[in-house]
Amino acid sequence: MKKITNIISLLSLIVLSLTLTSFVQQNAKPFTIDVTLTGLEDGTVIELVPACTHSVEKSVANAVLKGGKANFSQTIDSPRCYYLKVKDSDGYLQFMIDSGDKMTLSADVTKSISNGEVLYNFHNVKIEGSPVYQEFKEKTAEREKLNKDFEEMHKKFSSISQKISKARSMNDKKALDSLYASAEYKQLESSERDFSKRVEESANRSFIENKDSWWGPFLMLYQTAYFTKENRPVFDSMYKEAKDSYYGKLVFDELYPVNRAGNKIPDFIVTNRDGSTVKSMDLIKGNKYVLIDFWASWCSPCRKEIPNLKALYAKYHDKGLQIISISTDKKAQDWEKALAAEQLPWLNFRDVDQSVAQTFKVNAIPAIFLVDGNGILIDDGLRGEALAAKLEELFK
Length: 396
Fold this sequence. Notes:
4-stranded mixed beta sheet; single chain; alpha+beta; disordered N terminus; 5-stranded mixed beta sheet
């Protein structure tokens, strides 16, 4: 009887699997996008890149402009968010499309150069033929209003921001201390705190209002730069349909990563300035504890954390602490300039192709991973006083 029951169960699973496969195949339909761009030369290569995944994505399709026109076609089984961009450049146009849509997209494109980087801006955008894109605009209208408010706030405090940037570039600690103590800076901090509260309340409201569909997890990805453990209850409250969606699975993988505390971190390889490579475990072994610190020259919170890291390194290095700083700077000269200014006494590398950051699912910096000498992750959310307290506990 048990054998017969097992056979029936197996047959049921096969039928269910075939049914689900058939359902996915029925929903997987090609979309088409007819693109018209003015301001770009014929022969310009434009790319279609997945967006809102919290990962560095590669293009899924390329097209060459001819007479200002190009065409894309891809098969998907549910709505997707994409970037349209010029290959090997910054600047993009973001949109959404569903399976079976026949979209027309037109825009004027202007080119500029900022800090040696080519940037393309898309203006006078017109998109038709995608109902999900219209719904996307409606669901993100409040967020767009907040983005404009953010720009206005930083225009208001541009003077103090520029002074801080200049003092930091000159490594003028006295000037920085004075600026941080000023009434203008404290007003900036207060405005940022109030604005952050508004953003958080708006975002959480939109997540809950859309918890019954894929829109819920999608909006979490769209409106949140990176996830913390505090985001878990909101996601856990969503309906099964939302969690099982394409974007729901992306959110789950980020909120509950495989390389969480107690597990071994993924192996990675870094490149020295001379071009030689080093394996991660060769850097980690022989130490009691290691801080793997992802940062960048342009990241203000990262550079504010450096004095704390220097103090911890001075206190515990002789007892077995190592720090491995991995810069996500795109340009080597920016990284080198920051290294010269900060004089970091530990191991330093640059993540040239962002592959190491992607391996660790780093979506925002600073990101600090505390591991032991065997590469076992102890914690990935410690900074400042919390990090100091944890190391004091470990080195007792």
